[in-house]
């Protein structure tokens, strides 16, 4: 049912430009990885803090608001490069289990980060069971997204 | 190693995720050293409280990286991107050593400065550049564009990859 959409994705000008270039895909992929590092750092800083580790001399709301612009930058970087990579090999992705794991976990991770974790971090005066659970859930969700993303390349 | 179905992807995924942990946290510290972010956080909070996580990530990526290398040492040895990656790793290592043996020794003098002194800013910039180069060239190792068995290649490429080309020098 969705296959025609994936076929259309692969015929877009962005997709064909990437397909027709020897180095465009690797370069976008490398930038995607740099974005992953930035995302990993900005996610972990707050997750660690929520679990009572890392930069504990800062309050949770302070750290959360200071990391936020870098988190948003990293997510923008990931989405722009990630969508480009996807368009160029959409049909391969359609038949790829890891892709489906990633694309279903990603909205979960994003909504958890901005709807649940952000609220907990803004109001979190002290580390308690709720903040620890939030930090741990965030680590697990983003771990699945990243691991499944890497796994797309193996099949 | 290469023969087993899942060992290699597992090893390499662990390598990538550990890099996201250690380069990610290292870059956060670099942003502090540059005065780009976390201006109200003491620099020593990063080196004291965050660095253990960075180190843990580094150890995991080092071990998995060495195992990946060991699976096919000759292919990596003659890969141009691998060679650039090793140089970038040396640069990053020297920078870490210089920062901790000199600049960080006097951290109490600039711990709370919103923008740290020039030497610390340079260390932060070199760190971001070197680790980014490690990540990018590491990813590029997968591409065989400049491999020795793909001839003809420009002399410069063969020199950089250390290829022994038949008929060369005649």
Short synopsis of the structure:
The complex is a heterodimer of chains A (155) and B (170). Chain A has 155 residues and is mainly α. Chain A is built from 7 helices and no strands.
Structure description:
The complex is a heterodimer of chains A (155) and B (170). Chain A has 155 residues and is mainly alpha-helical. Chain A has helices at residues 3-10, 13-19, 24-50, 60-88, 90-94, 97-123, 129-151. Chain A is elongated and about 50 Å long. The two termini of chain A are 22 Å apart. The mean pLDDT of chain A is 95. Chain B is elongated and about 60 Å long. Helices cover 71% and strands 0% of the residues of chain B. Chain B is mainly alpha-helical and 170 residues long. Chain B has one domain (7-161). Chains A and B meet through helix 3, helix 4 and helix 7 of A and helix 1, helix 2 and helix 6 of B.
């Amino acid at each position: 049912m969705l296959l025609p959409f994936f076929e259309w994705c692969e015929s877009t000008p962005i997709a064909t430009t990437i397909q027709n270039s020897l180095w465009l895909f690797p370069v976008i992929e490398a930038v995607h990885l740099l974005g992953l590092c930035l995302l990993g750092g900005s996610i972990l800083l707050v997750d660690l803090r929520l679990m009572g580790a890392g930069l504990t001399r800062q309050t949770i709301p302070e750290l959360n608001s200071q990391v936020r612009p870098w988190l948003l930058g990293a997510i923008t970087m990931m989405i722009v490069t990630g969508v480009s990579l996807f368009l160029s090999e959409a049909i391969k992705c359609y038949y790829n289990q890891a892709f489906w794991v990633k694309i279903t976990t990603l909205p979960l991770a994003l909504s958890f980060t901005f709807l649940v974790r952000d609220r907990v971090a803004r109001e979190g005066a002290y580390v308690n069971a709720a903040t620890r659970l939030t930090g741990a859930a965030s680590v697990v969700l983003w771990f699945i997204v990243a691991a499944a993303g890497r796994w797309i390349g193996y099949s | 190693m290469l023969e087993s179905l899942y060992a290699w992807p597992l090893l390499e995924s662990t390598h990538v995720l550990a890099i996201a942990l250690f380069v990610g946290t290292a870059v956060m510290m670099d942003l502090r050293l540059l005065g780009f972010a976390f201006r109200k956080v003491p620099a020593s909070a990063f080196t004291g409280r965050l660095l253990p996580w960075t180190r843990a990530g580094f150890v995991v990526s080092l071990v998995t990286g060495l195992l990946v290398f060991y699976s096919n040492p000759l292919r990596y040895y003659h890969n141009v991107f691998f060679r650039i990656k090793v140089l970038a790793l040396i640069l990053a290592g020297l920078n870490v050593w210089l920062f901790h043996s000199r600049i960080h020794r006097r951290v109490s003098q600039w711990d709370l400065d919103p923008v740290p002194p020039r030497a610390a800013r340079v260390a932060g910039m070199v760190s971001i550049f070197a680790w980014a180069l490690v990540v990018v060239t590491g990813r590029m190792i997968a591409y065989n564009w400049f491999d020795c068995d793909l001839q003809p290649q420009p002399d410069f490429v063969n020199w950089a990859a250390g290829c022994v080309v038949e008929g060369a020098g005649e």
